[in-house]
Amino acid sequence: MNSLLPPIVSPASVSTESFLSQMARDLTARYSPEELSDLVVVVPTRRAVVYLKNELAMATDAGEALWSPRVAAMEDYMVELAGVQVEEPITLQLLLYDILRDIDPKLDFDRFVSWAGLLLEDFSSLDQNLAPADKVFEYLSQAKALERWDLGEAPKPESMTAGYFRFWDDLSKVYYRLRQRMLAQHVAYPGLAYRRAAERVAEQLAAGQALPRHVFLGLGFLSKAEERLILQLLKAGLAEVRFDGDAFYMDADTPNRAGQHLRRYLKNWELPLDDFGGPAELLRGLPRHVRFVGVANASMQGKVAGQLLAGARLAHPTGTVAVVLPDETLLLPVLHGLPPDAVPDYNVTMGLSFQSTPLFNLVDLLFEVHLTGIREGSSETGYGVPRYHHLAVTKLLGHPFLRRYQQWLDKQPNPEYHGLLDHICRAIVKRNAVLLPATELLELGKEHALIEALFKAWDTCDDIIAACYTLIDLLKQVYQEQHSAIEAEYLYLFYTLVKRLDSVFDCREQRLSVRSFRRFLYEQMTRTRLPFSGEPIADVQVMGLLETRALDFDHIILLSCNENVLPAPKRHTSLFPYDVLTEFRLPTYADQEAATAYHFWRLLQRARRVDLVHVLPGAEGTRTGERSRFLLQLQNDLLPQSPQMVLEDVVVVAVVTGANEGPHPPAPSPVERGSQTTATQPALGAFSPISAREGAIADHVLTANAATWRKTATFSKEMRKHPTPAEESLWQAVRNQKLGEKFRRQHVINSFIVDFICIAKMLIVEVDGDVHAEAEQAEYDAGRTHELNGLGYRILRFSNEEVLNNLTTVLEQIQEMLQSLPSRVQPENIPSPSHAVVDSQPKFPDQTAYVSGSSGSPLSTGRGGPGG
Fold first, then answer.
1. Which residues contact 758 (CB under 8 A, 6 or more apart)?
2. How sure is the predictor about 777, in pLDDT bands with cuts at 50, 70 and 90?
3. Residue 851 to residue 341: CA distance in whole angstroms
4. Residues in CB range of 576: below 8 A, 6 or more apart
5. Strands 321-325 and 540-544, sheet pairing
6. Which of 679, 656, 672, 655 is nearest to 780 (CA)?
7. Rounded to whole angstroms, what are the CA distances from 628 to 358, 527, 567?
């Protein structure tokens, strides 16, 4: 196994006792076993519950029995105290609609769906932060607004402004009616549960009821309801609080917002400094080795994380490591990038979002077909036959789920439907039409149930639900004999979501439009997760940032350290105007940024080895954010105050794995253009990082090592001699820098041969024949694309027909992609990559960059095939 960089060693090789371990020792030392069993210990998350229970067991002397205290996550405990059940948002939205219809019978359901979720979140935030509802709605009323805006006179009744004020005037009635109905049914949204919990504890204390003693550990940013609950128990002498703070962000004169909320609690609650961790000098006092690891694009982060983790386990086998994902969409790339030999055991705490599954992609493509199609007519005259865009139809029919179903169908005894999807795709190409009538697609599908489920017109949500049921019944046949197939889990989860919506809307008079149904379905999918099983306290954890609260690890690998991810972008996700939030001290994005800052710095407090992975600015055009502000604070604020910290800044140029490594091992491929050759690539060392110096972003593109290139050069030369008509046509259009950039053809990358490549832009263009529509080849192409994306390349694919019949459009798309990508041309002053590069004036202590590669590697020339 080749590691990314030399592993981090001393002085950061010693572990520091975790916060929960300290608290467990403190509790067992101060309380007798009988007293301990009567305690209620509240921690931020359910993951922290598991870790604290383990630490309590470890703190107990061998052979001694321990009655564990009640340990609960804050959210679960607040709901329990409230005595209600948190209801699903979809049920609450329908209840809200019924209340609004009583006030405004003309309310359109589809319009209501677009803002109902936001309104419920605002109500929840209002309750969770104990805002006075009467004063909030009075502040929003017309009279107060006119007074603030100084308009002089009221707007006309028929104006849009008057309608705006009527909405807010009615909202007070809606809020109280909704609250009354929910409490009558013993259900609530989360914020109301928090308000009820604080109110019930106040009532119990006033009535003199006996309550247990509480210990609150490791909490951070608290809602007003949580604050009131804790203060009430503190005043009654029934609580103690232990925050996990650090002097770096707790100092009174620090501008760091990570301690914003803890400093306020320290000032207002009159607690001793010991309850805030001292605050300790962990960030500035402990030896720590930190690396900034820049990568070319987001897709490389999964492979980089796997190699970093492999190196960490090799250097420190007994250390604890957390791979932290602020962007949860990276979960699958990270899991695919974990090398099984080096990291055999790990635990995934976050669960796989349904939106990250291939089945969600299939559902999304299905809605795209129906929503981008054209259907003329009206509800009065009747709608005509829908016509679907050929690109949306082709993408849908090429989805792996449908291709696997086609493979299963080909094995059935009835030959009528063998090659059904390929037959439809060929007919679409032959017809050469932009819009395809649904009737024609159904006819091409020979009335097969799958084609009817995909392309039969959708008029109401009943049609969508029926199509989903049919699709599930057909696709599940493929996996009936594979009881362990994860695709079967996807299908079952999808079935439960559709069944839930079916039962909710079955007895209602409102029939949803396609767009409204999609909104409800996608909301359900967002909250649905596929859980992973594993050892809860394994040494290696893969988790989200919020799940790290109150936990500590020896080594942190934190991904997506870019602005607009860490922290999240500034978004006003509320129907309440911003001045209302500030007037009544409701949370804003500024509070969320401060909370994220606290999570980041607290996570680093006891870690001795830290890798912060970020996407390089401009690596994917203007969409990529700059380095996170937290990295800049670490470099310019913490580093000068930390004499024992070592900070390195490296850039990973390319990920190069052996031919048989990675999540998609190269599969046998038909002998044709673009296929993998039979040569195998010896391991090169996993990455090629270089020092962070001016102009040194992705200066060298490693396309093949010498041994692989020698074995594949003959194949690529032969393919250049005998191009297909489509390849020859495209080559004549791009050669000699006709698009402003130099292209090469039949170029060797790793152990692959690509049709065309612009090395300066790291752009690959592939021209595919009919064989690429076959299921086996499509699966191989997906793995090949994954490997090339991991190396930092962008890929454009065109069919032979597109190149031969629409060359102008093809060239326009290539030109557009070239303009959107940054140039990777190598500056002349960069040293040869065959030697380690050390900045002559390093910015940080021991800042050394490491470059893997051999003198025979075609780095500077981009060797792999001649250009033109």
1. 741, 742, 743, 744, 765, 818
2. low
3. 24
4. 122, 136, 140, 586
5. parallel
6. 672
7. 30, 27, 7
Q: How confident is the model at residue 55 (pLDDT cuts 50, 70, 90)?
A: very high
pLDDT tens-digit series, residues 171-180:
888 999 999 9
pLDDT above 80 (res 563): yes
**Topology (CATH level 3) of domain 700-868:** Endonuclease; Chain A (3.40.960)
Are 749 and 655 spatial neighbours (Cβ–Cβ below 8 Å)?
no
The CATH 3.40.960.10 domain(s) of the chain lie at 700-868
- Structure tokens that stand for 826 in this block: 């190598």
* Residues of the chain above pLDDT 90, percent: 40
For the chain, give the longest Cα–Cα distance. Answer: 92
The fold for domain 285-351+533-643 equals Rossmann fold (3.40.50)
Q: Are 540 and 309 in contact (CB under 8 A)?
A: yes
Residue, of 513 and 670, whose pLDDT is higher: 513
- Locate CATH 3.40.50.300 in the chain: 285-351+533-643
Q: Cis bond leading into 279, ω under 30°? A: yes
Distance CA 827, CA 817 (A): 23
In angstroms, the CA 645 to CA 847 distance is 12
Q: pLDDT of 227-258, one tens digit each?
A: 999 999 999 999 999 999 999 999 988 889 99
One-character DSSP codes across 58-82: HHSPTT----PPEEEEHHHHHHHHH
What is residue 289's predicted lDDT score, i.e. its pLDDT? 95
At 191, list the tokens: 């914020």
Q: Hey, CA dihedral for 541, 542, 548, 552, is it positive or negative?
A: positive
DSSP 640: G
8 A C-beta contact, residue 345 and residue 320: no
Helix (H) or strand (E) holding 745: strand 744-749
Q: Which amino acid is at 670?
A: P
Residue 381, number of CB atoms within 10 A of its CB? 8
Query: Does residue 848 have a pLDDT over 50?
Result: no
The SS3 assignment for 118 reads helix
* SS3 assignment, position 567: coil
Q: Give phi and psi for 10, each to the nearest 5.
A: -55, 150
Please report the DSSP string for 527-577 in residue order.
Answer: H-EE-----TT-SEEEEESGGGTT---SEEEE---BTTTSSPP-----SS-
Give the mean pLDDT of 438-453: 91
193 neighbors 229 (Cβ within 8 angstroms): no
Least confident of 146-160, 328-342, 553-567, 736-750: 146-160
pTM: 0.74
Do residues 737 and 759 make contact, with C-beta atoms less than 8 angstroms apart?
Answer: no
Per-residue model confidence (pLDDT) at position 247: 93
CB-neighbour burial class of residue 200 (10 A; exposed 0-12, middle 13-18, buried 19+): middle
Q: What is the DSSP letter of 696?
A: -
